[in-house]
Design goal:
The protein has 100 residues and is mainly beta. It has a four-stranded mixed beta sheet, with no helix packed on it. A three-stranded antiparallel beta sheet has the order 2-3-6, with no helix packed on it. It is elongated and about 45 Å long. It starts with a strand and ends with a strand.
Amino acid sequence: MMKVKKLLLIILALFCLPAFGEIISIDLGESGWAAVLNSSISEVGDVEGLSVYGTNEDSVFIEIDKRFIAQPDEQGYYNPIIIDFVKVSENALSNIVTRE
């Protein structure tokens, strides 16, 4: 199922990441956005793939493949794999549409 997510520019996004581990940045093509994650997510799972499969005049369409390795908690929930999206261009597209 596709979800349209309006993202606001968060200047301090990189400072919100944990202070340990390697920071990994993946450019989302010519969209003006980058996906940023911290290697410390390896305790929870792994992002096995993050790819751009299209753009239009105001949106970039991405697919995210995740694999959870940690066990769920007592209620059956997994800790999230967090991906921050950072605006890297003044002309960035308005929307990021994900397919998971």
